[in-house]
Each structure stands twice: as C-alpha cells, then as structure tokens.
Amino acid sequence: MVVEQETPPFLQWLPVAGLHWLIVVLSVAAAALVIGWIVAAVRHGPATALRMVGRTLWMATIDCSRMSPRRVAALAWLAVKESLRRRVVVVFAVFILLLLFAGWYLHPDSPHPARLYISFVLNATAYLVLIMALLLSALSLPTDIRNRTLHTVVTKPVRASEIVVGRMLGFTLVGTVLLAVMGVISYAFVVRGLAHTHKISPDELRKLTSAWEAALREGDAINVPEIETEPAQGHRHKLRANAVVEEDGRRKLRRRARARTEPARGHWHEFRYEFPERDAGETRRQGPRLDYTIGPPEGRLVARVPVYGKLRFRDRSGNPAERGVNVGDEWAYRSFIQGGTLAAAVWTFDGVTPDRFPPSRFPDGIPLELNLEVFRTYKGDTSGRDIPPIHASLVLRNPETDERVEVRIFPVKEYATDTQHLPYTITRASDGRQLDLFEDLASGGRLEVWIQAIEPNQYLGMAQADAYLLARNAWFPWNFAKAYLGVWLQMVLVVAFGVLFSTLLSGPVAILATVGVLVGGIHKTFMLRLATGQQEGGGPLEAFYRLITQMNLVSEMPEGLLTDTIKLIDVALLGWLRLMAEALPQFGSFDLSRYAAYGFNIPPDLLAMRILTAVGFVLPLLVAGYLCLRMREVAR
Amino acid sequence: MNARKKSFYRKVIYVVAMAALLLVLFPLSRPATNDARGDRGSAGGVLAQMRAENGLSQAQLGEVDPTGEAIKLATLGMRGIAANLLWEKAIEYKKKKDWTNLAATLNQIIKLQPNFIEVWKHQAWNLSYNVSVEFDDYRDRYAWVMRGINFLIDGIKWNEREPRLWSDIGWFISQKIGRADEHKQFRRLFREDDEFHQRNAK
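Predict the joint structure of the above. Result:
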C-alpha cells in the first residue's frame, strides 16, 4: 500500500493537535463573542450589551452542565421515531439494490479483486449513509419549526441544549444501526463475491495418476510433476502435489497429503488429495484414480500488521544520499537505485526481538515483505524461452557492530507482495561463520536491511513503506469493522453540522450549507493548496481571467493595473478561503477503506487520532448549535 | 373570483398548454414502429426518421448495453461531469501506478461513453502500450497487451460499424505480438492463449 504521509505516534500527535484545536476554538469563540457584543451594543448600548453577553454565557454554562440524561434520551428517541417516519429505510433498500447490481461493475477477474470489492462496499455505504445523515439532520428542526411541532417540545421543561444533543444522538443512533446492518451484509457480499474454487482438467490429472501408477509399478516413488488448475475468475494456479517422502533412505509416495497451490492474484488454495487404496491389478483394470478437493481462496482477506523501518539511500559511489535516482516518473513517491554499483536502499528496523518474532510463530524466519519496482534501461536477453528477471541482493547488517551477511539474491517481483524470510541463523559465505539473527545482527533490537540491484544499469525503485517486517496478521473482520468506524465518524460529523445549520437556517439552505461543508471537507487539501499559492492558476479572479482569455494555468499574467487589482482582491479572497478550509474537517482522512482494501491493519494510533478529531469537532458544534437555537425566538 | 375558482382555471390552462405542446411534439418525436410480422410499420416522426437516415440510433451503432444505459440514467443528465471526474481519476491512477483501479475506472468510463470511439482507442493504447511496459515480467506485459486488445474487442460490440477499432486490433496484434522486442515470448503465449482464441472463435 502506498503510504505517502507517515502517521505519527498518537502521543506525539496529541499535544500538537490539542494546541491547534484549542487555538482555533478559542479564536472562533472570541470572535463570536465580540461580534455578539457589537450587535447587541448597536441595539442596546455597550454596557447593556456586556451584561447580555455575560448572561448568555452564564445561561449556556448552566444549560450545558444541567442537562438531564432522561430528557436527552427522550428527545433522542423522538428523533429516531421521526427518522423512521421519514422512511429512512429507503437508504437500506437502495444499498441492497446497489449490491444486487454490483456484479455489473465489479470484475472478480481483475488483478486484485479484493481491493475493488472492499473499496466498493465501503464507498457505497459511506455515500448513502452520509446523504441520509445530511437530509435527516438538516431538515429535522426546520420542519419542526415550520409545522410548529417544536412548540410542543419547547413548552415542556426542556433546555435548548437537550434538544440539540437529543437530535444529534437520535440521528446518530439511526445511522449506527443502519451502518451496522450494512456492514454485516457488505462483509458477506465481499466474502461471497471473492469465493471460488478450481478444478483440475482430466489431462492434468492424468499426469498425476500416471506418476502414481509408475510408482506402483516400479515400487519406488518418483517426483510428481507440476500441474495447473482450470481457470476460475480469470486465473489459474500451479500446484505441485509433492507427495514424496523419504523414509529409511527410500523414497515413498504418500497416499494422502495436502499442499498449497502457487499464489496467483494475491491468494492461494489448499489442495488435498488422496490416492485410493488399490492394488496394482485393480489399477490396471480400472485405470488410476485420484480424489482431490481444492479449498476456498486464502490470503486475500487479511489485515497485515507491518513493522515499518526508516529508509535511507546510498548513491552509486556508496555515499549517503537523501533519495535515490528519479527515472522520469511524474510521481516521485519511489526513487531508484542503480544496479551493479554501490547504490543501496537501507531500511533500519527497531524492535526486532525474539519476543516479537519468536521462532515458534515464524518457523521459516522473520517475514520481510517487499513491493519493489523495476526500471530497465535495456530489455535484457530476449532470445531464450523466458526473459531473465532482475535480481536484488538482500543483506542484513548490525548498525552497532557493522557485522553484515548476505542472506540471498532473489528475482524481483513487481506489483505483487514478495515475502522474503530472514532466517534465524545465517552462514556467512566469506568466512563460513554462523551468525545468529538476534544476537549478532539485531543486538539491541535494531536491524538494517540492505537491498541492492544486481544487474548493471538496471534500476530498482522503492519507498519507505515498500519494505516491512510482518509482525502478525490481525483478524480481518475486525479490521473491516474499523474501516466502517471511519464511515461512522464521517456520519457523526455530518449529523453535527446538519443539526447546527438546521438551528439557524431553513431546511434547503441548511442542506446546502452541510453539502458545502462536506464538499469543502473532502477537498480541504486542495483548498489549502489553493489558499497558500501552491496550486497553479491563482485565486478566483485570476482563474476567471484565465478562463475567459483561454490562458494556460502556468503562463505569466500580463503586467499592469488589472493584474495588480486582481491579485490584490485574490489575496483577500484566498485569506478567507484559508480560514474556511482550516475550520473544516478533512473528510478524506476519516476514510480508512484503503487500509482494509489493501490488506493492512488499521493502526490503533490512527483510529484514536480520528476519533479524537471527530470529538474535537462535535463538541464545539454542539455548543454552537445550542447558542444558535437559543437565538431563535421559538426556543426562548 | 375566489381562490378555488382561480386554482381551477389555472389547472385548465396548464392542461391546454400541455395538449398544445404535445401536438407539436407528436410529429417531431413519434417513434418508429414495426408491424406484427416484424417489418417496418411506420417511419416515425421527424427525429426518428433523421436517426434512421444517419444511423444514429443506439441499436444501429451496436449492442445496447443495459448497464451503461442504467448508469447514464443514474447520472441524471450529468454524464459529462461524471465522465470528466472518471477521466481525472484514471489519469491519477495511472500516475500512481494503481493498475487495478485504473482498469476498473476505464470500465466505468466506457459505460458512460460507449460510442465515443476515441475513448476506446486511447484507453486501449494506454493499456497495451503504456501500462504493459511498466511491468517487468514479460507474462504480465503480455497480459496487459491482451487487456488492451480485449478492450478494443469489447468496443466493437457497442460500435459494430466502426472500422477504426478493427484496424487498431490488427495493428496492436501485429505490432505487439508480432514485432515487439519480446515477440518470441509473446507469440508463444498468444499461441497458448486458449481463452482468448475460444472467446473470439466465432
């Protein structure tokens, strides 16, 4: 998975984010108080205005601190009933319809179908639930005010704060139940959609049974040939039913065994087979037979827990370098090292200890997963049956003692996860010394992994997240649920904004305002880039000028008074845009679907950050919603 | 005049206006019909006749794709905007080498623009030439070359009378399978590609 921005640890993020939050909230609150005082001062004079502001603050403190959970629960239940009256289940029906026809758009024979399926269900759910949350929350209060049903509520002994909190809780509850049901159905849809098995054609089976027959005839086992399954979902698997065992120096054929097919499209199947007990005569009369089963796909729906290292580079002369070479890619995520030189990519991993990677759990060695990219400057030898792959060397180094050993040279696999196991004991070829992984190479838990390209003038590309130690596989359904939690947080934010706007605007305008927040939040990064001048094309006026004059985005504006005026007005407009963008939640950051889709565990730190960010938005929105509702005559 | 009467007269005016508009619309947009034997019954209105003369009806262009039609309807008239967004996404996926999502996005684009020939030509070229060379293993390269060729073959289903797509299929196969640097391997894989040949045997 591409990780363009590293996620900082939660405790490192908390003080910085907390301070930022405090500054923004206090500034907005101060600005609101000053504006409130100015408006009141114009109408009633400065001293009275001050008293009014003080009284409002005092009332707000009392209203918020003396909220009754019972009344809030009753109002929340009212919101739930109202949602049901508004036929909220229609959203669920649309979701089912989408799933029913999803087969038209999703192709299980794509290279990574799990990514498509998981992204589809999460995105479809997110869009539907967000639209539902938007309509419910933004239309609720205005409709109540218009129909005067709110009057019956406010005549009861309820506080304005309880009305706002009750609405938010009620709509959130409805959304949560819908989301939970959709989540369960989506999970079943993904599992069912990806489920398949393969058959083995009679011709391929004959290869196996002939080997078995020969073994019976000759009384000794022979190597079983590699066979291929029939295609399903656009791919086949190779498999070697290696049933040969060595016992007492004799090679024997196992009657029944299980094997794993070669991986294809990111998964494999378990292959169980059994040669029925028959004597040679029976086999001659009836022909050879083989009973087999091929299990469901495995290794597709996973939640890898990676241990990332820090990446640094060595250039072709072996000197430290910040990055590798750019081979002309527009996207500079990966940089490349030249083959046949001293250029290397070096990852430093911490926490490589026997407790974390016990041999009992990783019998083949510590799994190092790689996603390297190849860039060839020449095609290589194309005259043979196959074209030789590009090779890389894998070297381990102890950063403290400089002890190093080459583990192996391996062919590089592109756009697929290649697992290289780091053995616990390695014999160094140069002096024949046996090195222990934990004692000699990772003493203190720190280990360096060096990757170099072997073939001269061929390049290998990598980024920091392209190599990681696989600590374990987390439980996929839980990871899927965590991705849904991201959708849930987005829904809570939309409900909070919708209820806030509905307290002071009419229904359609509240919808528009909430849609504005949603769209702005999704494009927050773009807005900030625009506001800070990182985006070509300038501000709104400059963009308009370029549009009507059909001027390229990167061309210089003509010098003169017009350009100066445009740029001056744009500075003010972009400053306003920046203020708006800073105050919006970044909806994209709550989208955790790509972790689940690419088979990576959603880190608990990331989840905690997102939950806290959502809380950081919802709390001020609650207070703002309460104040706005108090301003309305109906709530007084 | 009281409010009820006013409302009644307004409705009558609406109905009359609708009837007048329908009268104008009838000769314009009357559909062509077949008689009981399936022979051409009526040539239809002006628009239907012009469509038939110029070969512009969906059925004349090629197969009618229910998925594409459903998606076009679902965009509520904003097909251009949706196609533009999808093109941007496709460019981004290509830049970031996310081939799975690129292929999926191209499939969505062609559902929206099934009769826009340049889409088929451009994106097939993208798959067979630009994407395939990004892969190091020649078997992967071959798979993406064939993905582009299959994309063109799909295009012909919706655009049966379009010689440019046939021409491109011939060009891709001759250039990529016949003359590429790895033609020796590609020709072998092409020969062994039973699925492709069975699919296109008819």
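The mean pLDDT of chain B is 87.
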